Amino acid sequence: MKKKNLLLSAALISALMLSSCGSKTGTTTTNSNETTTITNETTTITNETPTNSNPETPSNTSTNPEEPNNPDLVASTSLSNSFNNIFYKTLENEVDKNNNVLVSPFSIVMDFGMLENGAKGSTKEQMETYLNGGMSVEDLNEYMKTLKDKMMNSKELEWNVANSIWFNESQISDVSNDVKEIVKKYYDSEINKRPYNNDTLEEINNWVKKNTNDMIPVILDKLNPSDVMHLINAVAFEGDWYVKFDEHDTTKNAPFKNLDGSTTNVDMLHSMNAGYFSSNDYIGFTKAFADQNYSFFAMKSQKGLSPLEMMKKMKDDNEDISTIMTKYGIDGMANIGLPKFELDYDTVLNKTLADLGVTNAFSPSADFSVLANTNEPLYISKVIHKTHFELSETGVKAAAATSIAMTKGAMIKPKLDVEINMDEPFIYGIYDNKNGLPIFIGCINNFK
């Protein structure tokens, strides 16, 4: 496998791609039927040799973005940096640094992409700068459509990407025609006019549940009568490995070193894997899914850094997950170890987004005058993000949902074979090999 094919897969979402974390913790289920809280951990290398004799040797798993003469290169580079920043700020804002975190920057940016089409002035400019990585909303619309179409047309993986706008019929008469035309054309979004009552709340949650294949059953706990609208994105992924793990090579009760220094026994999946990446600071691998256009990636520190410290160092060094996988790719076989787990995570992104530089959108001074006609200025009241991830011998299931609530009026603040075992905190995700984008990004800090 060529070095360019050794990039790490980063989640996710869509997706699912990496945004901010709230105070809630994710729960992880291991093979031994224990439910545990996952936290940010960095992966370590051990000398344990797996027995799987079926190395993964996919024929076409390039993880490089498009070639330089392709106009999509600028877009993927811009978004890759933005996706990393979203995940980094989410980790930084997590109240309990031991928590496991999972975001889909893809889902977040796609949801905001719809909203940006209704913004003007500095409100729009901030979102273009800090969420789009400097891309104009017009370019983002085109690129999001390209990514979405690629996912939905996958023949060997199950992707679902859905968007919808729900507006309160007692607050506004309609969404502007210009915005409706754009979100339908580029985001294939539904536009739903409803009373903001319990029936509509149930309808919204059922819509999210359906479009995440039941992995996220509820996105909203309530609808505030004063809210004007909700813009919602949902992403679901189900994919088998290109080469599955052999159950006979699973190590039962393998020790995992949690971020706080304690250990937890987990089921550790093992296999031979073609290609990995390694530098003085990081080591990791990618593992292809069936269509070889998307991969899972996992990486840990070579120097005992936590996932948060790893992301900070990347930012300080002007690197991101994509560049590390590309720059330090190595031709060779690696014996990999990966914990089997299941995780749910949810967070409110208001502070994370503000820390990124998106501040005007959360203030009554925001300019969303293109979005709808109102007697008072519209602004964002709350951004909710929820994710789900399951990793097993056969493959991965993942989902993400993002909700942006809009309100108006006065503001209410709310080469040698190596051993790479993820037996300590590590960063992981789902990676778009062709476009060089981490759709989902998460970290495991503990299995307590």
Notes on the protein architecture:
The protein contains 9 helices and 17 strands. It has 2 domains: 3-63 and 241-341 and 425-444, Roll (Alpha-1-antitrypsin, domain 1), CATH 2.30.39; 106-240 and 346-408, Antithrombin, subunit I, domain 2 (Antithrombin, Chain I, domain 2), CATH 3.30.497.10. It is an alpha+beta fold and 448 residues long. α1 (72-93) packs across α9 (350-356). The chain has helices at residues 72-93, 105-116, 121-130, 137-152, 177-187, 198-211, 307-316, 321-327, 350-356; strands spanning 27-29, 35-37, 101-103, 158-168, 190-194, 229-240, 251-257, 263-278, 282-288, 294-301, 329-339, 341-348, 378-391, 395-408, 418-421, 426-432, 437-444. Helices cover 24% and strands 31% of the residues. The strands form 2 sheets. Strands 3, 7, 8, 9, 10, 11, 15, 16 and 17 form a 9-stranded mixed sheet that branches. An 8-stranded mixed sheet has the order 2-1-12-13-14-6-4-5, with helices on both faces.
